[in-house]
Amino acid sequence: MAHHGYLELEGGHQMIEFIVKQCSLPNDPPGKRSPDPEYVSNQALRLMCDNVLQLLATTVEEMEPVLWPFLLEMIEPEQYTEAGCVVCKCLAHLANKKREEKAEDYNLDYDVLANTPKPNVMIARLMVLAGCPKNNRDRGIHVLQLMKGMSPNLNDNLVELWDTVIPKLTQYLEDAGKEDSWSQKNWEDLALKVKMIILE
């Protein structure tokens, strides 16, 4: 469907939103497994939809106008928090690609895009998501990469700061994952320093 341009037609955004809803499914209750041999668990469905969304964003060029900037609308609503990892991963790929290529559709007009969260809302939401980087299938690195890719669209004063700081924070998360020595307290201290710099 995507390769043949069907999702670019009316209803394409509803299809993407449906996939994101499946990416947001909670885990099945523990100890309750259906006897139906064809039963698909929430975890399995969620993983499949994560993969579908990621493939659409990274391998189907025709999907870029459908996903960008529409997927940004999925960042703020609480009901999509569980999908934060895959949504940020897809958006980070698109934002960084468009920023590097200086794509014509990279810069966002928030007056025209009425449903897209405004920059101050987006900054606050991304900082909250980054505050617990191990949640929602280790979303932290993807949230940070989205922050870096989006910075010119959020605030010109953030561009140099985030271009410098975010790779260091990303490296911290990668190193902590390898060493299996995660400290939420240390991370919160680092995130607080970044917030204080932003507020200055």
Write the layout of secondary structure elements.
Layout: H1 12-23, H2 42-59, H3 64-67, H4 84-101, H5 119-131, H6 135-138, H7 140-154, H8 159-179, H9 184-199
Structure in words:
The chain is an all-alpha fold. The protein has one domain (6-28, 35-199). It is 60% helix and 0% strand. α1 (12-23) crosses α2, α5 (119-131) packs antiparallel against α7 (140-154) and α7 runs antiparallel to α8. The radius of gyration is 18 Å and the shape is globular. The relative contact order is 0.10.
User: What is the radius of gyration?
Assistant: 18 Å
Low-confidence stretches: none
Which class of secondary structure composition applies to the elements? mainly alpha
**Total number of distinct structural domains:** 1
Biggest pleated sheet: none
Average of per-residue pLDDT values: 90
The termini sit apart by 48 Å
Number of helical stretches of at least 4 residues: 9
What best-fitting shape do the alpha-carbon axes yield?
A: globular
Measured by DSSP, the beta-strand proportion falls in under 5%
| Beta strands, count | 0
Elements, N to C (H/E): HHHHHHHHH
Helix content: 55-70%
Short description:
It is built from 9 helices and no strands.
Supply the key terms.
200 residues
